[in-house]
Amino acid sequence: MRLSEHTQGRPYAKHASRIFTLLCGGATWLCVFILLLLLWNVFSFGWNSLSWDFINSYPSRFAEKAGIKSALVGSLYLIALTALFSVPIGVGTAIYLEEYAPASRWRTLVQINIANLAGVPSIVYGILGLGLFVRAMQLNRSLIAGALTLTLVVLPIVILAAQESLRAVPGSIRQASYALGATRWQTVWQQLLPAALPGIMTGVILALSRALGEAAPLVAIGAATYVRFLPENIFKDEFSALPLQIFNWTDQPQKGFHEVAAAGIVVLLAVLIGMNAMAVILRYRFSKNKRW
Amino acid sequence: MSSAISSRKQLTNKTAAVGLRTVFESVIHVVLLACAAVSIITTVGIVFVLLAESLQFFREVSVWEFLTGTRWSPLLKPQHFGILPLFCGTLLVAGGSALLAIPLGLGTAIYLSEYASVTVREIVKPLLEVLAGIPSVVYGYLAVVFVSPVIRDTIESADLFNAANACIVVGIMILPMIVSLSEDVLRSVPYSLREGAYALGATKLDVTLGVILPAAMSGIMASCLLAIARAVGETMAVTLAAGATPKMTLNPFEGIQTMTAYIVQVSQGDTPAGTLEYRTIFAVGLALFVSTLVLNIAARWVLLRVQEKYE
């Protein structure tokens, strides 16, 4: 009632409404404009330095000769190792919470704990990695120490995504499977996981793209920014990573390095976009032959 | 399904296999339990590592000095160990970026949820996801190369690297988070509330500001708190953009240092492990961990209170 009185008493109500619409719309298009401006800036700045030589050479003290070979290879190693650790542990945790654990205080505790871990800044994980993997476990600044640290960073993302896709599988599938005499694990392995796979894979790819862009935890564990060799032993050799290399170049005062950094960002974003495109394609292909 | 049937046959035919299967099932259960334990161990590990080193730090520096001291210079003589300048820097960046991102993000969320056509939403939402996926070091680069020169051209007294610089890029960083979380909350407001208000003759503005926004307020507040927590923990962009001079100031055009940036500075330097200077990063890390934890818990608390009210 109060609202209708308002409109009748205010001849400008319609105009105010229109102005508000314009303001909100303006905010939206401003966001889009900012995004496009940022991407355009980076691409136009980095395009000139981008070449096969740039991808295939090691970092250098001279901007013209600097390349990202060691950083790119380091990043690919890191992603592969992080996937190796985080997928089984993350999906395992999700299965445990959704299908095994009874509704108890313990389950609530684990769930709240995961939600809190998702909000812990990545540099804090870096400090944990420094104390636990680099020093206590004597893994030094190796690829494996970096990958384990990144695993902890992305684990909550994997767990939450996998839980959500398991929850989306209809209960009737579980009941049908149990009715046919399948055990709990048979139900999970043969029915639920295949059904939840597209969602899980999307979450994993999202988590790995986060891991690919993370520099802070790697800085905290002391990963190198200037590496002129490819890692051979994942337990010993020092490594660098794309975001670290970009950080290092951006931190240099010379303009030349800023151009190289932009080229590095273009490579990083290209890998990220490739991964995300893969997630979209996977989701699309699997959703076509969904069984319910 | 057929595989389930065949396994059923195996079960009835070979009773010996049943015992084996039960063992297998309990092994699986234990393995899955161990996976879930990893997350608990992670939390315990974080608390343990931070506390163990911090306690050694606090043996030499009093907690009181650490929490109330207004000068921070652990790497230079004379040493000072007051965290307030770092805390102030973090607050300035988080507050400034929230000031930029909340109005813009909220406006976008309202537009997408209440006004935009399906086509516009289908275009804008994926674009914002791209924005959310850009790594933080890229924002740092943008701050150094593009934002900083603009600020220096506009305000001559500004330091080369300054808080405003960091506020702008961190604001852009947390923008997609505010938009997507707030939009979810706005869209979850029951449609009947909108229809009821329209039936009373309200304009779209009345409905949005008078009905939808109050109904979604707690969810929006939670999303803002989460975004601020993210800004507090943001590291690479702030390290590159805000400078490296711990300072108690509210002037955004001065160089400052945040808690996260300090940790990076020490990690990159050659401070030997086991020294007092080195332990500062654990004490600062602890302060950072507690700050973000409080913000996250506050966000969840705000959210829970609303849910109770609605159901």
Description:
The complex is a heterodimer of chains A (292) and B (311). Chain A is mainly α and 292 residues long. Chain A has twelve helices and no strands. Chain A starts with a helix and ends with a helix. The two termini of chain B are 38 Å apart. Chain B folds into two domains: 2-57, no CATH class; 84-310, Orthogonal Bundle (MetI-like fold). Chain B is built from twelve helices and no strands. Chain B is an all-alpha fold and 311 residues long. The model of chain B has no long low-confidence stretch (mean pLDDT 87). In chain B, α2 (15-60) crosses α12 (276-310) and α11 (259-268) runs antiparallel to α12 (276-310). At the A-B interface, α1, α2, α4, α5 and α6 of A face α1, α2, α4, α5 and α6 of B.
Secondary structure topology:
The complex is a heterodimer of chains A (292) and B (311).
Chain A: H1 2-9, H2 13-46, H3 52-56, H4 69-100, H5 105-118, H6 122-136, H7 143-167, H8 171-179, H9 184-213, H10 216-220, H11 242-250, H12 255-288
Helix pairs in contact in A: 2-12, 4-7, 4-9, 4-11, 5-7, 6-7, 7-9, 8-9, 9-12, 11-12
Chain B: H1 2-13, H2 15-60, H3 63-68, H4 84-115, H5 118-133, H6 136-154, H7 163-187, H8 191-199, H9 204-233, H10 236-241, H11 259-268, H12 276-310
Question: Strand portion of chain B, in percent?
Answer: under 5%
Sketch the topology of chain B as an H/E string, one letter per element. Answer: HHHHHHHHHHHH
Largest interface: A-B, 97 and 99 residues
Indicate the low-confidence ranges of chain B by residue numbers: none
Examine the secondary-structure arrangement and name the CATH architecture of the largest domain in chain B: Orthogonal Bundle
Distance between the termini of chain A: 46 Å
The share of residues in extended strands of chain A comes to under 5%
